[in-house]
Amino acid sequence: MLNSKAFEDDHQWNTEQRRAMIKRWAEYVRTHDDEEWSRQQNRLIDSQLQSANDMAVAGDTDPVRFAAARDRLRDR
Amino acid sequence: MELSDDTLTVSRELSALDKDVLEFTQILDACDVNYVIVSGYVAILTGRSRSTEDIDVILESLSEVETEQLVTELKDRGYWGMAMPLDEMYLMLSEGSRIRIAEEGEMYPNFETWFVSNDVEREALSNPLTVTFDEGQIEISPLELQIAYKLRLAQAADSLSGKDFEDALHLYLTFEERFNTEQLETYVNELGVEDYYAELKSV
User: Which of B11, B71, B128, B188 is the most exposed place for a label (fewest CB within 10 A)?
Assistant: First the structure.
């Protein structure tokens, strides 16, 4: 039998961890030069953008359908 | 980052996304189109550790002629409409729809643009925050409005753990001692997100 309580506990734990990470990163952004945090952030942004474009060019994603599906989920 | 009443100065190393945004907004500037960037990119620009596939850009309402001039400039600079031809831009926008614009042959990032259509959007467009980089400047939503708006999206999704709440949290924590708290709380009350704001502060 599926344990709904365990799922909720995991979800809560995950939420708290994510918030703690956002808090630490915001502190880092506040206390370091823009060049320092942006250099690290750009590794994430540039690689994700590159991968998204590579997938689109390869025909692995339809951006319009993807965005519509994402918006439907967001609006739930 | 240095925040004053109507300017945010950022000395960041530009990402590929930032460069694309600057190129796109330079076209809007060249055509004298008032715009404001809202939503995810505002959080990313100020350090949020995530990316996005689309940039949300609210435009002032343009006439058919003005829109055609913008379309001509966009085409000349190598942009295309991903889902609809740019030639349909005025038809789409004037009926309240949105159009996605990207560099020719590219899918991401794309600029989701629409004509200003409600009070929140009008507020953002009327009181933009100017972000200055060494390489240029762009107009974004006031941070206080952006936080309240993100909380409103989180509330609509009934989620205190999704990206909208997290974007609001990032902006709040990053600029906590620098933005106008009174203004933020006015927006929070107007958008009816007091409970989500209380949760934000408790973090």
Answer: B11
- In angstroms, the separation between the Cα of residue A32 and the nearest Cα of chain B is 10
CB-nearest partner of A49 from B1, B16, B161: B16
Task: Provide the token pair at B145.
Answer: 């409005």
Which pairing describes strands B7-9 and B2-3: parallel, antiparallel, or unpaired? antiparallel
> What pTM did the predictor assign?
0.89
The ipTM, to two decimals, is 0.89
Q: How confident is the model at residue A69 (pLDDT cuts 50, 70, 90)?
A: low
Alpha-carbon distance of B3 to B116, in angstroms, equals 26
Say if CB B24 and CB B136 are below 8 A apart.
Answer: no
Give, as one character, the DSSP assignment of residue B87: G
Element at A8 (helix H, strand E): helix A4-31
Are A15 and B107 in contact (CB < 8 Å)?
no
The model's pLDDT over B125-137, given as tens digits with 9 standing for 90+, comes to 999 999 999 999 9
A61 contacts B47? CB cut-off 8 A: no
Note the pLDDT tens digit of each residue in B180-189. 999 999 999 9
**From CA A41, how far away is CA B47, in angstroms rounded?**
7
Q: Which helix (H) or strand (E) holds A69?
A: helix A63-75
A61/B107 CB distance under 8 A: yes
